[in-house]
Amino acid sequence: MIYRAKNPTLLARTAESLFWLGRYLERAEQSARILDVHLADLIGTTAEQRTRWSYEIQALVGSQPHLTNFDELSLELSLAKDHPASIFRCIELAWENAKSARDAISLELWESINVTHSRLQRTFSADLGHSPHAFFAWVKDRGATSRGLEETTMNRDQAWLFLHLGRTLEQIDLTTRLLRVKLAEPDEEDWVVVLRCVGGHEAFLRALQRPVEKEYAIQFLLGETLFPKSVLHLAEITEKALVEMESIVPATRGAVPVPASIARLIARLKYPRGDELATNATDHLEEIALTQRDLAEHLNANFFSPARDSAVNLPQRTEVWL
Amino acid sequence: MESPFERYHTRPGAFDELLGDGQTPNRDWELVKSAIESMGVDELKRRTLECEESFKARGITFSLGGQERTFPLDPVPRIVSADEWSHVEAGLVQRMRAIEAFLDDIYGAGEVIRDQIVPRRLVVGSTQFSRRSVGIANPNGVRVTVAGLDLVRDENGKLCVLEDNLRTPSGISYVLENRRAMTRILPELFESYEIEPVSDYPSRLLSALLAQAPPGTADPMVVLLTPGVYNAAYFEHSFLARQMGVPLVEGRDLFCRGNHVFVRTTGGDLKVDVIYRRIDDDYLDPLHFRHDSMLGVPGVLNAARANNVVIANSVGNGVADDKLLYSYVPDLIDYYLHEKPILPNIETYRLEDPDMTNYVLANLEKLVLKPVDASGGKGIVIGQSATEAELKAVTGQILENPRGWIAQRLVNFSTLPTVVGSTLAPRHVDLRPFIVTSPEGQWVVPGGLTRVALPEGSMIVNSSQGGGSKDTWVMARRQVSRVAVRHDYSKLDALADLSSLAPIANHNTGAGADQ
To answer: Alpha-carbon distance B514 to A99, whole Å?
Structure first.
């Protein structure tokens, strides 16, 4: 006897929850890494430098710059319950989406997210405990755990693909935002910090075997195939996932499986003319932004529920049930 | 060490299920007693705590005021003998058959009203009566797919019905999860006892739902409709959906087109045939009920009326679990089945008669007052323990709307040994059995959810007010002697190539500790 594995279709809402689960898990980890990197480099910096970093970090996580004090900022971005980019909020949203997609993820992944969420609520609701570093390390660890469980305990089915796409697109977002923010500051000297924000310093040294310089760093972040967080590498993963998706989800809405812009972007990043990745970085960032928009439209139009927005303000009922 | 049962006693005025009448020792309990005695209460608590941690990690929780809480499990099980259970089972089936007949009648011919068994004003005056449901006949004749009745054991040790819950009763997930936990807390006992399994529930429910699909549906699609992740019982919804292997949907996942219901998926829109809904009538269809509800599906009621989709439990069941109607159920059993009720009701006073109201208001301290259409213990006033102001308020409400209230004799629920500190003490319990009805008939989960009021003397078992739960063990009819199976392990040894585990020869491992 032989069998045919079922690759069950997902509810459109579940697909979207999985996508956002991936994004929020990734975002929580990124925020922790960025804060940790800057915290470590604070020692011996000038007040001016600190203020600049505070503004840059706020721009990086997409919030209005309003805090100049790094400590306040780091507390806000860690634990503020109403800040849309705080680690606390990201984990809460990840947990909500995991709950909503509970039947599509593995028990072990769910348990891990659930434990992270409840530990955060119980232990870290007011301050970061004895050391901010320990807190950030904990968040990164929990992130690594959920990533590992995703890889090892889930079938490579639609559910996994949506989760995976969420993570990938979030990472493209971060790498490009990082470049945009740092390039806006023409005097930016410290490209080591920039690389470390995406965990890329060690990777850079290993791949290039030479000191960090601005031009190299930009090329590395945009087009290095060896580096898993370069835009090129992430774009290739995205393309592959979309092709895979096409083969397991019957195309019901007559769409193109992969938006042309992503294929074009890959070609540009893979075969640049000379050092144009570095000299022409802003143009490339522009193109990446357009591709991101295409991808979002592609997912919304083909897979996700059109009714998501209408449900944002559902009445929350907490009556006695038993 | 002193046995934790040494000082265990009966609470005055209540029946204790372990000690019984104090004359005949209950043989079913012997093994539980000796197991707990030999391990000690502290070890029992340690094992329970371990299980509770795993409940928390897995999210077996309910949310209350934005917090995730576990429903504490007391590790001392409740034991129900095979004989008593077959009596209870027969009583529950009988009651459900009468209730099904009643619902069919009032949403159809209305003979029970014409024959003056139940007054018309009681039915049409119920807030839960749904005129829109008149004439919607489920093609397969089942209206209460899942019922969860509340039983209590009175002062004489007799099980009585306290409430009928026929709308969206919850708690079954705890029955299944508690059983799983108990096999880890007291594995010894599962070897010695023959306990009726409860794990059939999801497949029984799924079969009942499939069997109700509109006629002519080849491969019916069943979905479980939840209000969403913020609902207190969301864990249960997602648990049941996973156990049955059906999609867990929210209102916004469904839509109606041409009187059919569809679900939006990544593979396109799929037709839905049966909706097991866990949301109230009021929120089900904004076209017909609450217009501001975002939880429901506009048009689903019309689709049901056109027989294109089946809603389970049916719309309008609440009229039959109205607490005033409860007092008529024994009459209904007589009327529809020509049988005597097997499970008695608790004495209930109808307040529409002014003389009765006067009597009740004069004797509030002996009575419990309940609003007729609430569930989950909401609005209940216990005369004995209520404050002056509460009594005054409820008196005012009764005089204003006598149809809205009933009074019941204050029953002392029976007690069971429960872990308190480092010993066992009697605590009051109730029982919620679950009955699944399919076109072929009723099936009762053996046992059900035993809820226990943890504070001393309390009889409030609700999870939100200090309630916990216990596993309910129904003894199997026949004690089957267990046959020990002998495995031949020598073959396994031969299969494992142990040589691969030997240290690699060239590696100098000798240069360490030995020298």
So the answer is: 55
